[in-house]
């Protein structure tokens, strides 16, 4: 296998050279490596660093001689090892980099040696589920090529404090491949204008249920949908009572395909009106999914501080995403301004002026990280349309 050396952050990594004439063939290379995920990895380094800072303080309250290398991290599906190597090198925590592909395993060993990492960084050559059932880690990171669904049960069992998950199978998560999404996530998504947030909440709902099986709760600290993937960071808390409380954030979305009405309905056994209360059209139902927070504001601030002080190729873009995540309302789901304008037969204003108009009428409103033309508000669709029409006529 031919390789070349690249640098991400402050880390050198050997990655496979793709076949001649092909710039990015993930399935053709003997070891998977995706250069397009550098943004994901940059955010991952900053988010994990922010959490490690918190965790060390928590552990020191129990034992005052705790150091950073006492924190354990596993990259369960490492491939080239780039994600875990960066965490080990740039954060200085104990890391296990695992992959059951022999080429990947050998490349991970070379990358550990290339960065002269200490003995606290080790390569593992096991099935990810076997490793995660055998051992517990403070931080478990799942970054599969495709769906994380086959690994969520073992990851939920293994994670003591933080679970980090990437899903690149956005078509099943967002409803474009409906039956596949139902099989993998035991939930029904709706493929509509807010399908990207739908995918985040379907994934979080699946994670919440997997953790609950092991009497664990979760607090989403940061979740984002960027291009072709979803990424989430959830703090783990142990205890049946905490798990029961977490499940109260589960529910369904009632959605009208005609007028844009939507309503969250909390609970796993709920009654949802068949007809839209606004226009009488038969509603669609999505779920079960997560209806709670996607981000913790304080944690986003801590991630921004980590991004700001690091040398990262995607620093500006990463900070923009986290800032939008921090500032968006916790209300599910977002509205697409252009979809509403098309239905009303009017041209769109700037998203900033629309948000200002909603606030002037006494509503909460914010941008979202999901899309530049999307917004969140606690105003109902009827009031949103009235405000948009009055802005056009005024």
Structural class: alpha/beta
CATH homology-level superfamily of the largest domain: Vaccinia Virus protein VP39
**Text of the CATH class of the largest domain:** Alpha Beta
Strand order of the largest sheet: 5-4-3-6-7-9-8
Question: What's the helix and strand layout?
Answer:
Layout: E1 3-8, E2 11-16, H1 38-62, E3 72-75, H2 82-91, E4 94-98, H3 102-114, E5 121-124, H4 128-134, E6 137-142, H5 152-158, E7 159-167, H6 170-174, H7 178-185, H8 195-213, E8 216-226, E9 229-238, H9 240-247, E10 250-255, E11 262-266, E12 284-290, H10 297-309, H11 315-327, E13 335-336, H12 337-344, H13 351-360, E14 365-367, E15 374-377, H14 381-393
Explain the overall architecture.
With 394 residues, the chain is α/β, with parallel strands linked by helices. It is built from 14 helices and 15 strands. A 7-stranded mixed beta sheet has the order 5-4-3-6-7-9-8, with helices on both faces. Strand 14 (365-367) and strand 15 (374-377) form a beta hairpin. Helix 1 packs across helix 10 (297-309), helix 8 (195-213) packs antiparallel against helix 9 (240-247) and helix 10 runs antiparallel to helix 11 (315-327). It is globular.
Brief sketch in words of this structure:
The chain is α/β, with parallel strands linked by helices and 394 residues long.
